Amino acid sequence: MQYHEDFIASLLKRLNLFSDLEANALLKLSSFFKEKIFKSGDIVFEEDSIGNSMMVITSGEVRVSQKSDPDNEEALVVLKKGDLFGEMGLLEDLPRSATVIAHSNVVILEIKRDDFLEFLNNESEAGVKILIKLSKILSSRLRETDTKLKTFISLTKWL
After folding, report:
1. CA 29 from centroid of its chain's CA atoms
2. Which of 29, 46, 80, 100 is the one with CA 20 to 30 A from 68?
């Protein structure tokens, strides 16, 4: 099933990251998203692979995991419809920090970094709005990680 750009734009409008964009900018942005379908158990991307895209779940669920050793994975979170992941891949050309696995059959919309940067270049007003929201998302995640790290350090003092 291939989504039309107006349908993709309506999905994007519901996401916090894109909620401030005008209809015209959303329609232009939606043209860069490509549909990908994964069956339950399929690997969407692996930890340490080079990230160059962000993905939005349109149906189904994915599991974000890290390898605790070669034979085991530690599930960090399960993401569902409307969640996005891989957003750091839009900003930097570095390895992915986790593995993402289809937790069920899942349909994802993916935007590649080059397309995202092209959109930002051509739609600077919309781009600023997106980058501000993206900064807030990343800042929130950093604060959450900081809190977890402080808790972990406190607990290790008792060992």
Report:
1. 16
2. 80
| Of the candidates 122, 105, 118, 110, the residue with the CA atom closest to the CA atom of residue 40 | 105
CATH number assigned to the domain comprising residue 98:
2.60.120.10
Q: What digits encode the pLDDT tens for the residues 47-63? A: 999 999 999 999 999 99
Pairing of strands 72-80, 53-59: unpaired
* pTM attached to this predicted model: 0.84
Q: What pLDDT is stored for residue 71 in this prediction?
A: 75
Residue 150's domain comprises: 5-156
Tally of domains within the chain: 1
Maximum C-alpha span of the chain: 57
C-alpha to C-alpha distances, 83 to 78, 101, 103, nearest whole angstrom: 10, 14, 14
